[in-house]
Protein: Polynucleotide kinase PNKP phosphatase domain-containing protein
Amino acid sequence: MTNATRDGRPPLAVFDLDNTLSDARHRQRFLERTPRDWDAFFAAAPQDAPLPEGVALCLEAARECEIRYLTGRPERCRQDSVDWLAAHGLPEGRIHMRRNDDRRPARLTKLEVLRRIGRSREIRMVVDDDELVCDAVEKAGFPVVRARWALSSEALKEAQEKEGRT
Structure:
C-alpha cells in the first residue's frame, strides 16, 4: 500500500454495505408492509447481488487505503456480512455494526463510529447511499462519496431514519 500517513498506517476508506456494495432492492419489499418484517429483510441479505460501481470503488480504494465497513445492520448479521464480502471478492476489513438493540438513526450511529475511528486514523473517504448520513458526515468534516448507483425504496429511507434499523 502507498500513501501511508505520518504514523506509517494507510488512511481508511469506509464503505457502507446495503445499496452501496450490495443490491438490497430485492428485500425492500419486507419493509413495505405493516408491520415491517425486519427478520426477513436481514435474512435475505446473503442473496444480495453486488453493485459493480461500489465494488469497483472499494477495490480501487484498497490500493491505497485500509478498508473498513460501516453498516446499519445489527450485530446479529455479522457472519452473513463477512461471508457476503468474501464471496464477492471484497477486501478484508473490520466491520462496524450497530448493537442489536440500537434503534437510533444511521446518521447518528455512523457519525459516532467515524468520529471515534477518525481520532486516531485519517479517513480518506466515506462511501454511503443514505443522503442523511452523507450530509451529517460531510458536515462533520469527513470526505464523502455519495453512492447514488442503487435505487432504494421510500420505505427503506423512512426505516433508516425513523426506525434506526439499517
In short: The chain has one domain: 12-163. The beta strands are 12-15, 22-23, 49-50, 66-74, 94-98, 123-128, 144-146. Residues 12-163 form a domain with the Rossmann fold fold (CATH 3.40.50.1000).
